[in-house]
Amino acid sequence: MISFRLFGIPVAVRPSFLVIAALLGLASRRLDLVIAWVGVLFVSILVHELGHALTARAFGAAVEIELNGIGGLTSWSAAEEEFGPGRRATVAAAGSAVGVLFGGLVWLTQSLTGPFFGIADFVVANLIGVNVFWGLFNWLPIRPLDGGHLLVSLLQKVSPARADRIANVVFLITAVAALAVALWLQRIFIVVLAGWLVMGELTRGRPIRPATTIPPMSFDAPDPGPDQAEPDRAGTDRDPEPPGTEHGGHEQVEPEPKPADG
């Protein structure tokens, strides 16, 4: 795992992030473009998460950022009374807002200094597309996107008693809609992701069955019958000994364990 600090914020980059980013860039079929694509995703997602982190820190929270196989994650710790629905909504919206602003600045730079060619054109075009598209897409009311957090925060502000119930219905509808659009566009990766979201909404809140407990079983020793041998003085049943058996220093030898294979 790669770790560093940016603007005083701890940032961790897990290997899964680099692997998934490279797999998504294989469509270019060129090693230099795959590397450039990984760099584009790294910068874009980091800028997005910095929007969340800097806003939360401005409200007094301790923050940290992690880039992993499913994108980015900003976590913060603060007292519950200090982070009401309004502040949570602001933090949720800040990531996409900063990303869209960054994409707009890249587009403005291209307009003033372009055109670019080769890898530079590839990097600039994707910086604009990823930041603007992903920023706007992230505002959709889908759990666990930023738009989902926005919706929950707004519902908790307007109708706290029914917030969870309304949010669950909306999230199920939007997840199904996302799956339908992905199937229509024939985007396999998005189909898998949307299907995972739909399954998550369908199973959310379902009670988990407790594991079945097997009752303990006990067995009582049978009563001695009239035909059984009477115990000797030591209180144990003793079979007749074969001829030639001697008492005294005979030691029972335990069988040696077989060596484990490999």
Topology at a glance:
Layout: E1 2-6, E2 9-13, H1 15-24, H2 31-58, E3 62-68, E4 71-77, H3 85-113, H4 118-137, H5 146-158, H6 163-185, H7 188-203
Parallel strand pairs: 2-3
Antiparallel strand pairs: 1-2, 3-4
Helix pairs in contact: 1-2, 2-3, 2-4, 3-4, 3-5, 5-6, 6-7
Describe it:
With 262 residues, the chain is of the alpha+beta class. β3 (62-68) and β4 form a beta hairpin. The protein starts with a strand and ends in a 59-residue tail after the last helix. Residues 210-215 and 231-262 have low confidence and may be disordered. The protein has two domains: 2-141, no CATH class; 159-205. Strands 1-2-3-4 form a four-stranded mixed β-sheet. The protein has seven helices and four strands, in the order ββααββααααα. It has helices spanning 15-24, 31-58, 85-113, 118-137, 146-158, 163-185, 188-203, and strands spanning 2-6, 9-13, 62-68, 71-77.
Summarize the structure.
It contains seven helices and four strands, in the order ββααββααααα. The chain is of the alpha+beta class and 262 residues long.
Summing up helix and strand content along with how strands pair, one would put the structural category as alpha+beta
Strand order in space, largest sheet: 1-2-3-4
| Gap from first CA to last CA | 33 Å
**For the residues shown, what is the average pLDDT?**
79
What attributes does this structure have?
262 residues, alpha+beta, 2 domains, four-stranded mixed sheet
